[in-house]
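step 4 of 6: structure.
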Amino acid sequence: MTTLSPTEPAPVGKLMPEPEGGRRGSSLRRSRRRLIIGLITPAVVLMLLVHLLPMLGGVYLSFKNLNIFTFRQLFDAPWAGFDNYRSILFDTDNPLRSGFTGAVQNTIVYTFWTVVGTLGGGLAVALLLNRPMRGVKVIRALMLTPWIVPSFVVAVLWQYMWQSDIGIINKVLVDYTGILSERPIWLIGENSLWAIIIPSIWRGLPFAMLIFLAGLQAMPQELHEAASIDGAGPFKRFRYITLPLLRPLIAVQLLFGVIYSTYQFAIPYVMFGNNPGPDADLMMTLIVRQSFSNNLFGYGSAVSVLLMLAMLVWVAVWYRAFKRDLEVA
Amino acid sequence: MTALTLTPRARKRLVDRGLDVLTYVVLFVMLAPVLWLLISAFQDDRELSTGAYDLLHPTVSAFTGMWKTIDFERFFLNSLIICTSAAALATAFASSAGYALARFNFRGSRGLSLTVIGTQLIPGSMFLLPLFMGFIWLKQNAGIPLYDTHAGMILVYTAFFTPVAIFFMRSFFLAIPRDLEEAAMVDGCTPFKAFVKIVLPNAAPGLVATFVYAFLFAWDELLFVSNLTQHTAETIPIGIRTFIGNYQQRTAQLMAAGVVSTLPVLIAFFATQRWLVKGLTAGAVKG
Amino acid sequence: MRSRYAIVLAIAAVLVGALVYTGCGGDDDSTSNNSSSNTDSQAAKITPGTTVKLWIMPNGPQPQEDMEASLAPFTEKTGIKVDVEVVDWGVQLDRIRNAAVSGEGPDITQAGTTQVPFFAALGGFEDLSDRVEDVGGAGAYPDGVWQTTQVVGQDGTWAVPWFTEARSIYYRKDILEKAGVDPATAFKDWDSFRATLQAIKDKVPNIQPFGTPGKKAFDLVHHVMPFVWDAGGAELSSDNSQSTINSPEAAEGVDFFAKLVDDGLADKSQLERDGTQVENQFEGGKIAVWIGGPWVLPSADRSDDTNWTDAARKNVALAPMPAGPNGDAFTFVGGSNLMMFSASEHKNEAWEVMKYLSQDQVQTDYAKLLGMFPARVEPQQAVGEASGPNYEAVYQAIQQGRTYSPIPQWAEIENTYKGRFGNILDEAAKGQYSEANVQKQLDEAAKEADALLAQGG
């Protein structure tokens, strides 16, 4: 089994290999060990303090009955056992659950389309830019701009653009080009999920494009040349040469793309506030709303734990599917 | 009527031109929202709230007014201080840990790698309340104020962005040949000194790129700062929402603030673009 | 090997030192720390030169300046400085809650009248029953206003009332004229309300009849609930034990409101906006009728407020809310109170500030700046009777005013209702309005509210 290090090739050899066993190697071993410990300690301490401990705290809180009346007791709030989990998953009568299923559904749809759009669009644009063209370097740099724009600016900008009466998008669609005859409403109703999917794709696409472009440009030309001599057209070459070689990159983008989309918070929150409505409510806005507006902190923690478990399942599934791509010769 | 036949060369040229045009169209579509942001920022507030805009008469009133409407200076300064410090610290911690992972194969290195990736799997909401409570507990029992302080936010951001930075730095270190350090150690240098004096300077582009990458993420962050700050340490993502709200609707100023908020990351990105892109695409380029 | 250890330790020490330094010395917020022993023997002692921290919400276009101007004479007279901070309505609930729980916050905060029970139950606020005689106690305030300082199930007085507002109908006189509607009867009851809007829709182009914000408005519930009340419904049962928002009467009220959207009498695009934006649309002449509070009136007189078109500015008029099928014309009465944090280290000085803001003249002047009404009985009446027909209309509305049950869970229940009302309006905007859909949403709302009620105790 290889180290789970998908984006980097295997270490190019070790600097100070494990000294041979026996008394002679022990002092060398000790000083080597001290160096390693010294190097990794700060990062490890930080991760323990700020990641691991609070995460355990979060899991602990999910078993507690933490609401406005008990909030002041902080960690000493009364114990609730599995009540929170039960009411989320099984208690169909519990009204707080209805938001849960809706948010799960929305998040799945959102993640699916965002990842498809980002990866597919990124690949398409990368193919487009992988040509000798004048100014392609400048174009590539400019193409990265959406990714740099902070996500809260993206949300604020697109919210303004999506307004049904004065927004520029409807103006272009209806007034300027006449593609549509009626002004659709984007910020309310079913379209509201698309109102966040499209900016998410817009923002994520350049990054995927960058990665894929680098992969394309690192591809050995001989393979393509040999294949075209053998009579393979561009589409065949793409399918049998390009795509398989890009698979590791696609795999990584897929993994982190799904995680990032599932945990998306800033764009719906800034665009819609903490209650985006049943059509655009995502898991994170649900959790934040239940925790901080309804003061159901135990419930919010429990949903967070479930979300994390779901992501662990995703990673396991992904690993199964893409294990081969991680092994480096 | 015979169809227009093209020689293969002419066909190729046509296709090429067509793809060129397509590229420019795609570029335009991708940049259009940003262009719109810029255009809107130079409009008049009242006009803009009715959807009217005038391309021929730009005005900078939004840019000058935005500093007065809300306390944007404070938000901007806080963002700068907190994000820069956190990015610098994260880079520092990440370079030492990344070096260890790049050069050494030690017991627990795989565990460490897995843990580092694992941190990315935890939803932010899970940390939020415990961190808040932790801050309060520290204040009440140890007298260390962290809630709504720069230090508290820097601590949180550093911890959050170190894992990502570790992998970044690691790929940069892997690209540096061992010979340099080995030569230095033959000359009597300790490995640690070799790291500091030889490797780090060589990895300078990587350090810069990691710094910018962490800075980009920190600049963006919203969930934690909205709950762990109150006034003193509020950053731009919090402040920018107050342009539209009670008693005001300064759309043009909001757009202008968006432009101003984007400038630092834009500058940081394009200044270090080469190294940053190299770091991001390191995994894509084998060997 | 020793040097390596030393380096690591040194780095760690520097970092910890830096953290502690910036944490302790660097930040200059003068928030109160752990409360020291606050012996009552110093009850009346006031130290000039102390700074009291006050949080207010945006009460007007220039909240900071207005508040500081109002407090300037106080500082001059007593030497107590007041550090004013404006906290947006969108975040104030979270901020105040965090401040109360963490012990880090101001000395005094403004709070919505409907929020006081929630904060009081949370803990962290001072019971002012001992002090409240200084400002005249219960007798100095109208009944309904005084009730907002009390909490069901928790003895004590948790706030001091500050200013009062009530919602009424804003309309454009000129538009009504063009539509051929007589203002005196235009909004008399539900039927004439609809008829007026229909007349505007039919006869006056270029302006939408009515506009209401949707789920983005933090005060959406205040807009819809009067219709519920007028139909005989209520948000909770009279013993506050369960939600009655899905009763037939309540549904009738909500239906009336939602049908306005469904029938095109209310502009759909306004639902994408929050309260202030819709207010600006009225001022900008895009809608003819709107429901709002009295704070809009002063801005019409401010020539530098560029939201108003000239036509709107000259023709704005107010009317009481329309009477429902039972003949009731309830309106939502709200406003703000002042609460003191128990973690405050300057309680006596803070009380002085609150006393000052409760003086008849001071309160009247500040409220007038905002377009609100003072909370105190006599000043309120004085303003109502002597400020012109528009203010008189609001004063009448206050007399027919109603507010929500003062229970701790109300703030959360209001939030739930807001979400559900928002969904109902959204469905109407999508053309999916039906009484069955409305009933479904209200049933869900009632279930959620019941679950929140069950948290108590």
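step 5 of 6: annotate
 - The first helix of chain B runs from residue 8 to 41.
 - Chain B touches chain A through 105 residues (CB under 8 Å).
step 6 of 6: archive
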